[in-house]
Amino acid sequence: MKTLKKHKAKxxxxxxxxxxxxxxxxxxxxxxxxxxxxxxxxxYPGGALAAPPSIAEYTAYPPFGGKLIKPxxxxxxxxxxSLNYFAYDFDFNARTTRTNGGGEGGGSSVPRSxxxxxxxxxxxxxGYFDSDYWYxxxxxxxxxxxxxxxxxxxxxxxxxxxxxxxxxxxxLTMRRxxxxxxxxxxxxxxxxxxxxxxxxxxxxxxxxAARTKWEGYExxxxxxxxxxxxxxxxxxxxxxxxxxxxxxxxxxxxASFEVNNNxxxxxxxxxxxxxxxxxxxxxxxxWGLEFINDYGPFAWDDRGGQ
Length: 306
Prior knowledge:
Strand order of the largest sheet: 2-3-8-9
Number of domains: 1
């Protein structure tokens, strides 16, 4: 029995002294510290993790690189005769006898455009007029009156008898030059062309006038009543030379059309100066402009002049 007790005491003494006495305190201190850190991680996992790195930590610039260069944007613009063609449903080879015959512009047959498709609001025609609005005409200009049914805008209503459909007016009056000007700078206005006798307000948009009948003379619709103050079959005649005769403006300054012996200027009232891509992007890019004209410095009109 004494021998057994002696061996037990010796085993206990060996287990307790497996580390030197001088290192036992440091070991237990570190063990307790590690247990406290692990406890904090388990209790507050979000606070223990580092914040995600920012993109700046992975971005490096040359030490002597200077400032960043603005991108270059070059506009390659066609200024040939075709720029004055109707923007929608224009066929140069689709000829018809002039409605009024003779007169300014010469010739007995002209390009005639038709094919207006009313798929509003799924499909709309882009231009100076707002496709979501009705328009009235007075004092030589078109002015929006109310949103159209189906536009989803507050105050939308059906057409009144004396109103025009903005979507139809875009199809009827817009030429390719108008579309380009609308997209780039918001459109041609009285203030921008430097005259004061064309429109009631400097901010009003002014449609591009055709110089000859070959650039688009007539537009036709089988039933005008849903889109205009008129009814039934109608032909809209664009003869800028005749319609501007006797006025104090040149044929290049404002477009107009005639229907039912009434002349309407393609002038759209605007409360503020319209803007396009160039104003929106501004000085954040470096702009360049290049012109293309297949006909050289001169273009022949239909009467043999230059």
